[in-house]
Design brief:
about 200 residues; binds zinc ion
């Protein structure tokens, strides 16, 4: 069955919807399924416009829906596999293992990358789109990805984890390499990125 999916723009900072806590899904109905379809379509559209990058995942608030839904790519190593798995009401049961530092970016925080600390392992509970409860034990990059997306449901962005670290921020240069970003100029005290910061 082919279905027409509305093209929704990805919202970016300082849109306040990115800073709201999302509400739980009480029933997986047509509205929820429509949001999931739009999220997956947005990931694919974005990727088609960015030849060398992969859309790993997305959270519903990034399309302006403050609902607890994320989609995660089935196989992050294969750009030709555009299947995504939706996780509804995902919860972090616990995190464990050592803290790993790796680069993260976000469609909702354009042009900024960061080297973000995350635990190596997580235990996640969620519902699939057919209502089945699943428990996942992601590690490394998959754990990082899912934790990044669950953060979105709580109004948290990856930049929040590194906001006081002047050496953690990067941008892409013309050749597509990550290079350090001028922290004092672009990050420190930037109200678009950190709206809740008190004036110092
Ligand atoms: Zn993100």
């Amino acid at each position: 069955m082919s279905k027409k999916v509305e093209k929704k723009p990805v919202i970016v900072t300082p849109d306040p919807r990115l800073r709201q806590k999302s509400t739980k899904i009480s029933q997986i109905d047509d509205e929820v399924r429509k949001i999931i379809d739009e999220m997956i379509q947005s990931c694919i559209d974005w990727e088609n416009e960015h030849e060398f990058e992969l859309s790993a995942a997305m959270a519903a608030p990034q399309l302006g829906y403050n609902r607890r839904i994320i989609v995660v790519r089935e196989d992050m190593s294969d750009k030709n596999n555009t299947n995504f798995i939706a996780l509804i009401n995902p919860e972090v049961i616990k995190t464990e293992g050592k803290t790993l530092y790796d680069y993260e970016g976000c469609l909702s925080v354009p042009s900024i990358y960061g080297k973000v600390p995350r635990p190596a392992k997580a235990r996640i509970k969620a519902l699939l789109d057919d209502g089945t409860e699943v428990r996942l034990k992601p590690t490394d990059f998959l754990a990082r990805t899912i934790l990044h997306e669950i953060d979105h449901l709580n109004g948290i962005l990856f930049i929040d984890h590194i906001k006081d670290d002047p050496n953690a921020f990067y941008k892409l240069d013309d050749k597509g390499d990550l290079v350090p970003l001028d922290y004092n100029k672009y990050i420190k005290g930037n109200k678009d990125l950190f709206p809740d910061d008190d004036n110092e």
